[in-house]
Amino acid sequence: MRAGFVDGMTSPKQRVDDWLASFESALRARDVRAAADLFAPDGFWRDLVAFTWNITTVEGPDGVADLLAATLDEADPSGFEVTEEPTESGGVVEAWIRFETATGRGTGHLRLKPEGAWTLLTTLRELKGFEESQGGRRPQGVEHTLAKGRLTWAERRAAERQDQPYVVVIGGGQGGIALGARLRQLGVPSVVIDKNERPGDQWRQRYKSLCLHDPVWYDHLPYLPFPANWPVFSPKDKIGDWLEMYTRVMEVPYWSSSTVRSATYDAAAGKWTVTVERDGDTIELRPTQLVFATGMSGKPNYPAFPGQDVFRGEQQHSSQHPGPEAYRGKRVVVVGSNNSAFDICGALWEHDADVTMVQRSSTHIVKSSTLMDVGLGDLYSERAVAAGVTTDKADMIFASLPYRIMHEFQIPLYEEMASRDADFYARLEKAGFRHDWGSDGSGLFMKYLRRGSGYYIDVGAAELVADGRVKLAQGQVSHLTADGVVLEDGTELPADLVVYATGYGSMNGWVADLVDQPTADRIGKVWGLGSDTPKDPGPWEGEQRNMWKPTQQENLWFHGGNLHQSRHYSLYLALQLKARYEGLPTPVYRLAESHHRG
Fold first, then answer.
1. Distance between CA 323 and CA 347 in Å, rounded?
2. pLDDT tens digits, residue range 237-292?
3. Smallest Cα–Cα separation from 561: which of 581, 547, 571?
4. Long-range Cβ pairs for the range 378-385 (8 Å, 24+)
5. Can you point out the beta strands (E) in 114-212?
6. I need a surface site. Which of 41, 358, 371, 526 has the fewest CB within 10 A?
7. In whole angstroms, what is the distance from residue 273 CA to residue 515 CA?
8. What is the pTM of this model?
9. Average of pLDDT values for 578-587?
10. Which residues does 140 contact at the CB level (< 8 Å), separation at least 6?
11. Closest to 27 measured CA to CA, from 120, 91, 111, 127
């Protein structure tokens, strides 16, 4: 059966064409076993909504057979074909493909080994009959027929705001805004609700020196990329202004200065009651779908230490830190050793504060310039753009690697980074800093995907620790006194200010606050892969827990992550919501179980 795509004498394209023809033939005949046998024993299929109405990965021919047995009749796929010339490297053929299902059109990526398909990615890109109004389908903008009572564009927009939304999105940062833009283009009545006065205030209100540590090519929002002269690393206020502009230009239905007080689900009616305080009024919304887009950095972890009530100086979580100007000459203790801790320590040092960092656990550090070159350069850089790797293509390449094996691709990159910057790491170690490369040496991206913390992209502050300009203390905090911080080993750190750079809680915590604890417990932990590494307990789940897909609570969703994830996954979440809005059948394959609370 496999000879057509095993024969090394045939071209890569012929091998891909033969595999796709065999795959489609088996699917058309509903021969699940034949289709599954086209996958290598160590093969993977990652599906983003196209077949499963879920975000899921199956492993091996048996996993493929299980997916197809559950989804094939409903999906009714066809039209598999390549979209550009396949390539071959190291015995692996790679190809970009497209296909159709009963309800939509999709694109994907295939890696083919002699034993069969190694990885297959399938993604739903649009729903048939509900395509976005782009290109030739763009709106006219005005009616070229005069009629009494004709409404202007602005009047039609104002009328829309009076409707009850089908979707309420709680949280108006980049995640909520990106999803709001997608829903707007798909014609799904929705509203994005945020407590801040203006879109972008989530960034404006952070500490003064904050900049994105990801490069501009990684951070575009849907539909409207940053201009060509946008800085590589965006300052927080510039991002804030961009988000505000984007919200207006993309006509995202956005309620600012609004606070969600509670949300209750009526299972019989299939609707939520969402209570909102807005402009001094209490408003009840009755959406069908509720999305928490409160962000990975939305609910501060403010630690409780004995003596906080007797400390005479200032205490603040890193999210509350106003900037360094008021602390010139002051003694500052920063509890934490990840991104925010380093950023704040660096800015305080620049303003002549006496700064001590308290490192409680090991941290992974990578130099920004090295990460941009080695870790991101082939996908998100000017070099990548010149090679024809668009942002969407880069997103798809990244998505095409199943999480089960992603670390195998990351480890060599971080080994190269360690070699390139060996002197830097030696100086950090000499200064007493505890550094790690992740539990398996796979570095920053896997740490982010597994736990969302535990790293710093160095833009200069690590050098301050390495040479002692920012002092370093190791250990857990025991208690505070009137004028300092005491560690468990008895070390006393005098302080006028204590900054808790202690991270953020799970988005699940917002469900507990606004819905109830039983609902939060039923959904379970949000984020992580089940890798059984620190802060990411098993069992293996293979995808981000509860993100961008159905959860154990009907009609409740989570959306967020960094700008890259907010951009990429907002499409798949928006399509799931659109399908439900239009009443399309959306049978979910393998709804994720809940293994952990909180």
1. 8
2. 999 999 999 999 999 999 999 999 999 999 999 999 999 999 899 999 999 999 99
3. 547
4. 380/214, 380/215, 380/217, 380/218, 381/215, 381/217, 382/217, 384/217, 385/217
5. 116-127, 167-170, 190-193
6. 41
7. 10
8. 0.95
9. 98
10. none
11. 120
